[in-house]
Write a structure and sequence with these properties.
single chain, about 270 residues, mainly alpha, about 75% helix
């Protein structure tokens, strides 16, 4: 007579390793990350080269003021693309498992659904934090080295530069976790992609900064928070529009992924897979 053996429970470190293997084994992921990085860094270089070419026509005062250096380092075209890609990949990370049925196998092996989702969120955030840091650092260094030819570069030691660098590096993990949370709540690929793109990119444009209530809603969006954190100037009290605060923008950065992951944790524990 043989004695039945029980498999040891998976530790959280095992779940992290499993999620990392899943992420690394997807052939499309490295290519998507590489093309995204090249596009954003390239857009920063193009913006800096364009302003470098126009500097010979600028007044000396304009050359001394760093009116465009940070904008060239973190161009909206590149970083809005980063938001879209990070949010989409974050959503696909979980929606793909629902579509393929892999999530059922996973939850049979590891009944603690919350731990599985938390491990997935940590790996996703770590990958995009590393990539976001590399992209923002290279974008900044490359654009400022180009602009240094006219002595209009922004020094890295400037508080605005450090703030913009940190905000741009963290933009990717914030959007990836928002996409992950929406993926758990919606579970359907097309609907999740559309909702993620609309929430991150389109929704802020509906609200203006000219009226108080509308500006409050707009300032609570990730895109608006990033735009404020990369500004190289402080708002004037005489401005005719409302500008988000730096502290409020960091709170927005923290609140979106935190709420998204918390809602996802509640959803996976209460809904069938």
């Amino acid at each position: 007579m043989t004695t039945p053996t029980t498999e040891p429970r998976a530790r959280f470190a095992d779940l992290l390793a499993s999620e990392w293997i899943k992420t690394r084994s997807l052939r499309s992921t490295p290519w998507a990350l590489a093309f995204t990085a090249l596009f954003i860094i390239g857009s920063a270089a193009v913006a800096a080269l364009a302003d470098y070419g126009h500097q010979s026509h600028s007044a000396p005062l304009g050359q001394r003021l760093h009116l465009f250096a940070l904008g060239d380092a973190f161009p909206p075209a590149g970083y809005l693309t980063l938001m879209l890609v990070a949010g989409s990949i974050g959503a696909v990370t979980i929606v793909g498992e629902y579509s393929s049925g892999l999530i059922r196998t996973t939850t049979v092996a590891v009944p603690a659904r919350g731990a599985v989702l938390l491990a997935k969120a940590i790996v996703l955030a770590a990958v995009w934090t590393v990539l976001g840091t590399v992209i923002s650092t290279v974008s900044f260094a490359l654009s400022q080295s180009i602009l240094d030819g006219w002595h209009v570069r922004f020094p890295i030691t400037h508080p605005h530069a450090l703030q913009a660098l940190a905000a741009s590096a963290l933009l990717a993990p914030v959007c990836a976790l928002v996409g992950l949370g929406l993926g758990v709540l919606i579970r359907h690929s097309a609907a999740t992609m559309v909702t993620t793109a609309f929430t991150l990119l389109m929704l802020p444009t509906i609200f203006s900064s000219s009226t108080h209530w509308s500006a409050d809603v707009r300032h609570a969006m990730v895109q608006s928070a990033w735009g404020r954190l990369i500004q190289d100037w402080d708002p004037s009290p005489h401005d005719s529009f409302y500008v988000p605060t730096v502290a409020g923008s960091w709170v927005t950065y923290a609140a979106w992924p935190l709420i998204a992951v918390l809602l996802a944790l509640v959803a996976v524990r209460r809904r069938d897979v």
